[in-house]
Amino acid sequence: MTAGEKSQVPAADATLRILSHLAAQRGPVPASTIATALGIPRSTVYHLLRVLQERGFVVHLPEEGRYGLGVAAFELSSGFSRQQPLTRLGSRLVEAMVDRLGESGHLAVLHGRDVLYLVEERAPRRPSLVSDVGVRLPAHLTATGRAMLAALPATQLRALYPDAAAFTSRRASETWTYARLKAVLAEVRRTGIAEEAGEVTGDLSSLGAVVLDHVGWPAAAVAVTFADDRVTDDIRAAIEAEVRGAAAELSRRIRGVR
């Protein structure tokens, strides 16, 4: 190893430690707190945070003087998901859930402001869904997306949706705002179940629940999609129970919070 290579190793190690530390927090934290927690000189922390911010791995909240994970960090998480661990662990759970309910189910992860579908299990004699494997949809419109967004700290949520341009809609008559999103997510947190009704595909609704990792971060979400006219209150209660159970079991399998 050359002298030049040696000088780069400590910086690489410190950078990874900063990212790991941020990933373990419930929300953005001050640079000084990072420096103290990791025993890294404050000037070095500020320098590395600036580089990470330029690359999109870190977002700076100037009004609060805090730093949190950026969209590029979510992309790394999604890359991990695309390499199969969550898919392999979750596919059997979704398949069993669909068999018991007779309704279609899926597993998705958060990818920036989108959800990326990893598993799609279609029930017999049920319509095809737009949420096929590899498809991305706006997170705020889907049950899986709302389940995961509701588990994010408020500061991270605001960083994802800084203004009106961050929102899209599949219905021309519909307008989304940050205030509306907060109200929707507050209900998700209250009930533990996320719902969307005809906002992705008309006449179809979905119920979803979040899969949390070991620090309580949304690793994925499980959902079931069904036709509104076929679902009674009893069937809906059964769907909610199955979705909650599948999400909790997947959280257990990845050693997450249940």
Overview of this protein structure:
The protein is of the alpha+beta class. The protein has 2 domains: 67 residues, Orthogonal Bundle (Arc Repressor Mutant, subunit A); 180 residues, 2-Layer Sandwich (Beta-Lactamase), CATH 3.30.450. The chain is 47% helix and 19% strand. It is built from 9 helices and 8 strands. The strands form 2 sheets. It has a 6-stranded antiparallel β-sheet, with helices on both faces. A two-stranded antiparallel ribbon has the order 1-2. The longest helix is centred in the N-terminal third of the chain and has 21 residues. The termini are far apart.
User: At the fourth CATH level, what is the homologous superfamily of the largest domain?
Assistant: GAF domain
User: Based on CA inertia axes, which overall geometry fits?
Assistant: globular
Give the topology string: H per helix, E per strand.
HHHEEHHEEEHHHEEEH
Extract low-pLDDT stretches.
Answer: 1-7
Overall structural class, as computed from helix and strand content, comes to alpha+beta
- Briefly, what CATH class of the largest domain? Alpha Beta
Keywords: DNA-binding, Glycerol metabolism, Transcription, Transcription regulation
GO molecular function, one term: DNA-binding transcription factor activity
Domain HTH iclR-type: 9-71
Domain IclR-ED: 72-256
